[in-house]
Amino acid sequence: MKHLPVAAIAACLLAPASVMAQVWQADQGDGTFRNPVLYADYPDPDIIRVGKDFYFASTTFVNMPGITILHSRDLVNWEFYSHVVEKLEGTAAYDLRGSDSYRRGLYATSLRHSRGMFYLAVTPVGFNTRIYYAPDPRGPWRYHELDREAFDPGLFIDDDGTGYIAMAVNTDGTITLLTLDRDFSKVVSARKIHHIKGGEGSKIIRRNGWYYMFNAIPPRLALTVSRSRSLFGPWETREQIDDKTGGHQGALVDLPDGRWFGFVMVDAGSIGRMTNLSPIFWKDDWPIWGTPSAPGRVPDRARKPLDGFAPTQLASSDDFAAPRLGMQWQWNHNPDNRAWSLGERPGWLRLHATIAPGLWSARNTLVQKAQGPRSRAAARLDISAIREGDRCGLGTFGQYSATIAASRDANGAPFLSVTLIESTEEGPRADVRVAKHPIAGSLLWLSVNADFTTDKGSLSYSLDGQHWTPLGGSFPLAFAWRTGTFQGEQFALSCFNGSGKGGFLDIDTFTLMPGDPE
Question: N or C, which end of the chain has less CB nearby within 10 Å?
Answer without folding.
Answer: N
